[in-house]
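#lab-general

N.A. 3:47 PM
ok so I finally got the sequence cleaned up, no stray characters, all 263 residues accounted for. can someone with queue access submit it? mine expired

B.Y. 3:52 PM
send it over

N.A. 3:53 PM
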Amino acid sequence: MNKRPPSSQRPAHGIPEDKLPRRQFEEEFGGPSWVWGVHASLAAIANPARRIERIVATKNAASRLPENVRPQILEPDAIEGMLPPGAVHQGLAVRAHPLEPVSLEAAAGPPDGRSVLVLDGVTDPQNVGATFRSAVAFGARAIVLQDRKSPPLTGVLAKAAAGAIELVPHVRAVNLGRAIETLRSLGYVTVALEGEAELSLEEALNDKRPVALVLGAEGKGLRPGVAEACEKRARIPIAPVMESLNVSAAAAVALYEARRGRA
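B.Y. 4:20 PM
back already:
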């Protein structure tokens, strides 16, 4: 049964907690960022590395929580009012401290056969979140992100990842070129994915070393310096009527091919 917060935490304006207008909850309570949606929230709750401050749920969604988790029970529109416009919360949201990035050496070394993904200039949270899903689905060891230009692992990104951000470590690199050089020194074959490359992905992966796959944003692609830091450049053969793949789809294809070739 949900317990009411102590009087010092109750709203001073007298409006019932489950009827507060949009944004009022964040103004009232403050704290870390929200993660919403059933899969993203359950994964955050299950992750021992997460510092969770608050869990809110509808009565129906609360039944999906572990028995030892006691959420605050609210109406759907009250939960909606705590989140950004358009957030599809499915009756469950968690307010948690952000996941901490790990060092590249800790995330990727020594190699164990699994692939590493490197994302250059991918700024759309939906794309990054979906790429995390691909990474988990095909057994990637880690994802390396550009430090300043990559979106935080919260909100829309966490929802798109459907819990995957809790399952694969991420690295934030100030200089991706240097990060790629470090991966090479650790024993990875580094492969830049470019649509105009002469080498096919299958040919580039004809190598028994674990692979670091380097992908750029759809349209802009990889920056020249990042591509030049890689040992190989390769393309995913697609129909000529289609110019390129979404980065998460390209990551899924590349990770599958890398895993298949090393099975």
